[in-house]
Amino acid sequence: MKKVFSRLICMIACLLFYQLTQAQGNPITVEGNILDAQKQPLVGVTVSIKGKNAGTQSDGKGHFRLKVTDAANAVLVFTYIGFNTYEEAVKGRAIVSVVLTEDRKKLEEIVVVGYGQQKKKDVTGSISSVGTKAIQDVPVTNPQQALQGRAPGVEVLNNSSKPGDEPTVRIRGSRSLRAGNDPLYVVDGIPYAGTLSDIGTGVIQSMDILKDASATAIYGSRGANGVVLITTQKGKEGKPVVSYSGSYGYVQQLGESDMMDANRFIEMRREANRTIGKYDDANPDASDKKIFNTVEYANIKKGTNVDWQDLMISPGYQTNHGLSVAGGTERTKYTVGLGYFKDQGVLKLQSYERYNFNVGIDQMIGDRVRVGATLLGAYSERNGETYNGIDNALKMLPIAAPYDDNGKLITYPTGDSQQPNPLLDYVPGNRVELMKRFRIFTSLFAEVEIIDGLKYRLNVGPDVQNYNYGLFQGKNNTNLLIGGGDATASKGNAATMAYTIENIVTYNKEIKKHNIGFTGLYSVQRQNVDISTTNVRGIPVETQQYYNLGQSLNVTGVTSSLSSWTILSYMGRLNYGYDDRYLLTLTLRADGSSRFAPGKKWGYFPSIAGAWNIVNEKWLKGQQVLDNLKLRASFGRIGNTGINPYATQGNLSRIPYSFGNKGVLGFVPLDLRNPNLTWESTTSTDIGLDFGFLNGRITGVVEWYNQRTTDLLMPQTLPFSNGFNEVLMNLGTSQNRGFEFGIGATIIDNPNGFSWKMDANMFLNRSKILSLGDGRTADVGNAWFVGQPTYVYYDFKKIGVWQEKDAQLAKLYNLKPGEIRLEDVNNDTLIDAKNDRQILGSPQPKWSAGTTQRFSYKGFELSIVAFARMGSMIKSDFYQNYNTLFGRYNNLNIDYNTPANPTNDFPRPNANQERPSNYQSLSYFDGSFFKIRNVTLSYAFSDALVKRMHMQDLRVNVGVKNPMILAPYRQTWKGVDPEDVNVIGIDAPATWMLQFGVNAKF
User: Fold this and answer.
1) pTM of the prediction?
2) Can you give the CATH number for the domain in which 170 is found?
3) Distance between alpha carbon 505 and the CA centroid of its chain, in Å?
């Protein structure tokens, strides 16, 4: 023991001596000047000693001074925004002057465009890009969520927190009334249909959003609503790199819906009966026995007060893991990856689990042939896709006990047959709902360089999808306990086979100052969907669930369908550039769609775009402020197929009838056919300015656009005497105008100290219906109005609650004090739908914005992602479905009207009304919000430590998702989360998450 101790003391002494001798080295002061290529001094250049924390910055004359301890071996590192990092060995010198070269990478960056790539400086269209770093900044379930708040003009709204749900994406607003407004997704060059949840976010390298006609017209009929180009990770030249990323998140409910507790509910029911004269305050106990049943009265006496939300909701979790290997040689590059994701919701029956794999290879054959393949595979299981158990929990009375004295669930806790115990759904076997999906998406290509500059490329993209859906509801499931009946089951299957074949010819040639590029395309895309569904009732043995439908007592429905469509396309694009100053792009695409009738199948979509690289003009040469100044303008037309594959042929429906003494089956037209249907077309004008200042320290874009959509596919109302209510026609016209602004800035840049970088964007969009056809100014049934946005809320307007002082006036409307007061638009003392409904507002915000802030200090980095949506209106079904105020169900904990509390917020409870009169007017709220979407703190271990661990990189992080929401709906009206597309409903509570993660490379 003494020997070991002596050796330890000796070792420590040696180390101390070594450190002392190092510290006693002769330090010298190194100084010098830092210039650019034009021999102009550079101010604020960071000068550091490689491997040390010491550093300084150049002064106003480009001069620096720095004390160096080990001058013989020290290496100085010079870093400056907009310039290439430079290293210079000191070698004992006292004077070290350097010239830094400009880093043109920002302008030379490759941007993915339709059917190819371009240098950023040569792009004439409106394109926003989201890179790997931004995608990894926030924990997301699917790729669309990574776009939220990241790109001007791109709006991403989460529909719910239900595991497996996808958000809604709108690029520059909504322009179609019936034909759909979702963008086209293209993955590695192949159009991608269906759920993007099949793609693990860990395999995505970048997403480029094409917004104007010049950028999207190349996709013709598919690009009317914008295009999102997704590029997956590719192998790189070098030795194999093994990467792992893993995270685990603790998910909690963002906030309980504010329902009444026992005391509040009891008083509300009493008030509801006071209103109709059934409650005598002079004899409260006797009155309680009249208005509460035996079970409820007994529970009141026991002091029962149950929080049913708390019983139904438990912490969930998210876990995400990815493992990949990438590498290659000059001729062969490859990547292979595996991924696993699990999202367990806060409701036990809701979850989403996904397994991913991806394979990519790129191989040169000789000097002119290149072949490659990308394969993305996914298998997922989703539980509780349609489950809405929280609905029954919110309505359940707080004075109802869930368990009896033996701990057994009580089927009807209050004795009310319309209020079964929501916890019964959690009993194994009472409710089983599972969706299984399998998908293989492949992008294959072969490219040959015929002569210098001339290439032919063949893209083939088979896409195979299959889903298997099953739903079983036992007789003790809450839905059947309300509706009654035997156990039911449903089984559905769908198989989708799609493929894309593209033949692409490109030619690029530089002749002195002239740059010419041409792209030609001939392609065909086809999709075939085969669906079948069976519904049964009366499962003899409930453990069979939906696996043995043939044993059921009744088959309640059998359906099957086959749907196919094809698009044949030709496209040509010409790019011309002169002297890196003047750019021109001409595009023409022709699409033929099988969805339309003969003579109407083809649509033609031209566009023209030009750009002026002002910064490259001679009169700006030599200036030191501007790095980039480019003016862009484009004009073009894009289309939208927008109808089901057989809409022009009409549909038939089977109908039984009596013929003689027999029952027979016949067929009648279901839809009136219209063989004259043609494409919706959107004409778009775009003007943009790209800018960059101070050696790349500030970059940004300003953009204005105007879109006009004609031949809108929409229903024309018909007289009932025709036998049809409506027919689909090309009728209307709509318009979208907007402004976008985006900026990125490096505010503070100190590689060895504190740095601050930010990206921010703001945009506004104004949609408007210009015409509805046939001279109509309104389609009230669909809430479409000329001069108004494409989606509005058209309803009665609540202006308060009738007060006692206005009792005589209320009587004219057949109402009483305490009931909702509506605005009488025409002052005729009659509230009627024809004259008194009005446009209350629209989900369209006045403006939206997003920002990402990144702060770093040595190995630490803090990122904050936030976005805002201001000036919109939302419709909340909470205040319609959980605000009945008649005492049968629990109620939102609102400030309701009573004679002693004459509020104008909400009406007086009434036991004779299942809902307040005009209750729908209570649902409209200011939808504005500011949301910090994610805060992440990460730490990157030092290079020295990582190398000792035989690794390339090691980072750990902790983050919080949805840590803060500021919104009138939340703070004033006790809502939870105002983020939704049109209507705030409930099928899964909003959540927040605390997440821990690690990233490693070997």
Assistant:
1) 0.85
2) 2.170.130.10
3) 35
44 and 121 housed in the same domain: no
Strand-pair partners of 613: 630
Half-sphere exposure of 481 (CA within 13 A, CB side): 22
- Residue 858's CB is within 10 A of a number of other CB atoms, namely 15
Residue 13 has a pLDDT of: 40
Query: How far does Cα 540 stand from its chain's mean position?
Result: 43
Question: If you search the block for the tokens 């492949």, which residue do you land on?
Answer: 442
Positions of E strands within 50-203: 55-57, 63-68, 75-79, 86-89, 98-99, 110-113, 116-119, 127-130, 154-157, 168-171, 184-187, 190-192
Residue 191: predicted pLDDT: 84
Same-domain check for residues 85 and 196: no
Extended strands (E) in 425-579 = 431-451, 454-473, 488-511, 514-537, 554-578
Q: Tell me if 188 sits within 8 A of 116, measured CB to CB.
A: no
One domain, residues 132 and 158? yes
Are the C-beta atoms of 997 and 202 separated by less than 8 Å?
A: no
Q: How many whole angstroms separate alpha carbon 785 and alpha carbon 772? A: 8
Interatomic CA distance for residues 470 and 588, integer angstroms? 46
Domain check: are 226 and 177 in the same one? yes
Count of domains forming the chain: 2
Report CA-CA distances (Å) from 137 to 749, 935, 957: 20, 9, 10
In terms of C-beta density within 10 A (0-12 exposed, 13-18 middle, 19 or more buried), how is residue 365 classed?
exposed
Which pair of tokens denotes residue 235?
């192998």
Residue 174 lies in a domain: yes
Gap between the Cα atoms of 573 and 521, Å rounded: 9
Is 91 inside any structural domain?
yes
8 Å CB contact between 723 and 715: no
Same domain for 28 and 52, yes or no, is yes
DSSP string covering 587-631: EEEEEEETTSPTTS-EEEEEEEEEEEEGGGSGGGTT-SSEEEEEE
Give the residues across from 569 on adjacent strands: 523, 591
- For residue 28, tell me if it sits in a domain: yes
Please give the pLDDT value at position 225: 82
**Looking at the structure, do residues 50 and 137 belong to the same domain, yes or no?**
no
The domain containing residue 81 runs over which residues?
23-99
Short-list 362, 370, 332, 574, CA closest to 456? 370
Residue 24 has a pLDDT of: 38
Q: Are residues 57 and 126 in the same domain?
A: no
The answer to whether residue 54 sits within a structural domain is yes
Provide the total of helices (H) and of strands (E) in the chain, helices listed first.
15, 49
Q: Which residue has the tokens 């042939």?
A: 369
pLDDT at residue number 102: 67
In angstroms, rounded to a whole number, what is the distance separating the alpha carbons of residues 123 and 706?
A: 20
Final residue of a structural domain among 203, 219, 241: 241
Amino acid at 621: K
Q: What is the CATH number of the domain that holds 59?
A: 2.60.40.1120
What is the distance between the alpha carbons of residues 734 and 655, in angstroms, rounded to a whole number?
39
Q: What is the mean pLDDT of each run of 10 residues along the chain (1002 residues)?
A: 43 39 60 80 80 74 84 83 78 86 60 69 74 70 77 80 83 78 84 80 81 77 80 84 91 89 95 93 91 93 93 93 89 91 93 93 90 92 89 92 92 91 93 94 92 91 93 91 87 94 91 89 93 93 90 90 91 90 91 86 90 87 81 88 78 80 81 80 90 85 91 77 74 90 87 85 92 84 88 93 93 92 92 91 91 89 92 88 91 93 94 90 92 91 84 90 90 84 70 91 88
In the 8-state DSSP scheme, what is residue 348? T
* Gap between the Cα atoms of 500 and 589, Å rounded: 17
Domain boundary among 241, 264, 285: 241
177 and 145 within one domain: yes
Length of the chain: 1002
CB 170 within 8 A of CB 442: no
